[in-house]
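Record type: monomer structure entry
Structure origin: computed from sequence
Chain ID: A
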Amino acid sequence: MIPLQMAAFAVTALGALVVVVVRDVIRQAILVSFYGLGLTALFVVYQAPDVALSELIVGTIAYPLVLVAAIARVRGKKRGP
């Protein structure tokens, strides 16, 4: 394994650990987005551009956006009458 691959794997593993350790749901949603960027970099390093593009769109943009919208909607219903 080349050093770039090892570094990308280590950053991705550290990002996963940070996402699991954080307790606040909104912060987790934001960290999942950054974790998705780490996975994208890992896939690019391992020369899987199609998987990297899919991860970039879904893991970095779409999933966190839907997650934050759902959390906001649930919190809005709790505060309502």
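Annotation 1: The mean pLDDT is 89.
Annotation 2: The chain has one domain: 3-79.
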